[in-house]
Design goal:
The chain is α/β, with parallel strands linked by helices and 318 residues long. It contains eleven helices and seven strands. The strands form two sheets. Strands 3-2-1-5-4 form a five-stranded mixed β-sheet. Strands 6-7 form a two-stranded parallel ribbon.
Length: 318
């Protein structure tokens, strides 16, 4: 399965990764989960199972304790760091480039027990890397830190072994002492970069957050809660909104709309088991859901372009 997945991914994206890393407007950031406990540093049938049992038990106590088993590793476009803090959970950032983009992409999709982990990604600490959804299921990140930090970018710690990591660390330390700002491990943008971002930066990219006024994050989602980690799915007390989402606008489909979909639900991977060998039946259901989604997107676009009011409500606190 892993070999077939790699081949399919390479055929679709292999030749385009360099173009993604050169995009003039958008920046690519890939989230992965790296095993740091001895049981999870290398993949093995029994040790991986035991390792995830340990991670699950640790997560029951707190997400921070799970950090002793799995850490967040974000592979970020070397031109720009994410514009908000990543210190809510143990982890680090590594530079994303042609030398590691494909391996990092595969790792970001490697669901434990379904796909093999990716080991020893170039430019990153050694170890086994899995799907970033394990540590960051719905990306319940500290978006509001962009406001608290007065516009300064505050990424997680960079790994010095990544290309340019040590240089960025030294330059950031020098700037912080000279300018009186908190240390940041990403390079300051050039005047040309500042101008370009102010003219065309988009929410959802790592655009600089120094513009006047509050910055909102538009988050299209499939449900009205942002679950922090994959192992938190059954821990409903962690599903509520937090102060980290204070500047987030969550865009979700209405429950009545979902009820009108085939089987009254969004398509998911459980459909493969439910439909079995009936590939045509499953495909027909998925295509209908896609068509309904396109109509929903068209309706939203018409409301925005026409200046029509959009109903909003506060995120639940769980």
């Amino acid at each position: 399965v892993s070999r077939a997945f790699r081949a399919r991914l390479a055929s679709h994206l292999g030749a385009r990764t360099d173009a993604l890393l050169r995009h003039p407007r958008f920046r690519l950031h890939l989230f992965t989960s790296r095993g740091v406990h001895p049981l999870l540093r290398r993949e093995g049938r029994l040790r991986t199972l035991a390792g995830y049992v340990g991670a699950y038990a640790a997560n029951l106590r707190s997400r921070a304790r799970m950090g002793g088993w799995l850490e967040r590793v974000v592979f970020s476009d070397a031109r720009d760091a994410l514009p908000f803090a990543l210190d809510d959970y143990p982890g680090r950032t590594c530079a994303l480039g042609p030398h590691n983009s494909f391996e990092a992409l595969v790792a970001s999709c490697s669901i434990p027990f379904w796909l093999q982990a990716v080991h020893d990604i170039p430019g990153a600490p050694p170890g086994a890397y899995w799907d970033g959804g394990i540590t960051d299921y719905h990306l319940h990140l500290d978006y509001a830190s962009a406001l608290r930090g007065r516009g300064e970018r505050v990424p997680g710690r960079a790994w010095a072994g990544s290309p340019g990591g040590e240089r960025r660390r030294e330059e950031a330390s020098s700037r912080s002492s000279e300018e009186g700002f908190p240390s940041s491990e990403a390079e300051s943008p050039s005047p040309e970069e500042e101008r370009r971002r102010s003219e065309g930066a988009s929410l959802g990219t790592s655009a600089d957050v120094r513009a006047e006024g509050p910055r909102l994050v538009l988050y299209p989602h499939f449900q009205p809660s942002v679950v922090p980690g994959w192992l938190d799915k059954s821990l409903h007390a962690r599903h509520g909104a937090s102060a980290r989402l204070d500047n987030v606008v969550l865009l979700v489909p209405d429950a009545d709309w979902i009820a009108r979909l085939p089987n009254a639900k969004l398509p998911d991977r459980r459909d493969f088991k439910a439909y079995g060998a009936d590939h045509a039946g499953r495909a027909a259901v998925w295509r209908r859901a896609i068509a309904e989604s396109e109509r929903l997107a068209d309706e939203f676009a018409a409301r925005v372009e026409g200046g029509r009011p959009i109903e909003a409500e506060a995120l639940g606190e769980g």
